Amino acid sequence: MGFLSKRGKRLPDDPVPADPAVIVNPAPADEAIGPTLPSRPASEPIVVGAPTPAFEAKAIGTEYGRNPYRADTMIDGWSRGPFTIRAASVRGYLHRYNGAPRQDDFAITAAPDRDRLIVAVADGVSAARYSHIGSTTAVRYATQWLEEQPVEALGDIGWQSLFQNTAWMLTERAAAVLSLAQADAEQAEQVLATTLTCVVCESDADGALSAVLAGVGDSGAWLLSDERFVPVLGGKQSSDSGLTSSAVSGLPRVPNEVEPISVTVEPGQVLLVGTDGFGDPLGGGDGEVGALFASVLAGRVPSHLEFAHTLDFSRETFDDDRTLVAIWPRVN
Fold it and tell me: Are 73 and 307 in contact (CB under 8 A)?
């Protein structure tokens, strides 16, 4: 079938026009890896199971402050040296409904004088009114602190100092937010509390990436390998009864000891760092959410918009902010 002629008749040899509202997988069927995603309107979220009810998002309420401006969604992605990155942070459906800001944030930097990638992901604690400011303060300070440190082996990074200094910065920021001459850690926790997970990556001679991760709070990291999600760091803690705790301990509280985790990311694998808005619906990775993300991330690098669109999926009861950073060893 073709275009309509001026007389309303269809010209048989004309091509079918592409519908700009439909996402089409450009890969040939014989090159596709994992399940093929169905075509769907780009203006609608991907539905996984029972959807969240549809509604128009509300503007952020004035009680959360008017400055700095807080976007509903952040999208980033690029390649440099041995790294390829995709990242997104989206406001959860609950916050869109009640006018609260996106409390998640991320920051990424690639040191210009060496092949080292630094990623920070934070999830502001819901009970703290200005935790969106806390999460932004934490990720920006942490990536700057890690970039400015002397070139050390990955195993020699001073993680305890990083989190202690970030906690101090949150206390200083709380004083400014509350218009106080000075603030203490307790006041900072009440208004700016946030989780923080950081990753430092370098390449090795075999084309793989060596990464060290450390975090405070319940944000997590996973290695996507052969369409399986292998937990690396963090996530919600379960009790002896098998129930998952919703209590979150974050900065400015710093544990007495921070234990870094090392992981190798081989070509064909993906290192994922995300908040619990992604981790909770992912679960063990063997359900519908895991299948969705495996089809988008395993064996391929999605576009920026496809990555963010996938993260903004609709699933009933999972309405928290979601932030996810994906790191691939770059294939030249």
Answer: no
Q: What's the whole-model pTM score?
A: 0.84
> Using an 8 Å Cβ cutoff, are 64 and 310 in contact?
no
8 Å CB contact between 210 and 204? yes
CA 71 to chain CA centroid, nearest Å = 15
Q: Beta 83-90 vs 220-225: how paired, if at all?
A: unpaired
Query: How many other CB atoms are found less than 10 A from the CB of residue 316?
Result: 13
CA 102 to CA 135: how far, in whole Å?
Answer: 10
Distance from chain centroid for Cα 86: 9
Q: What are phi and psi of 136, to 5 degrees?
A: -65, -45
Residue range 117-163, pLDDT digits in tens:
999 999 999 999 999 999 999 999 999 999 988 777 788 899 999 99
Q: Which residues of the chain have pLDDT under 50?
A: 1-36, 238-248
Distances (CA, A) of 299 to 34, 128, 331: 8, 39, 11
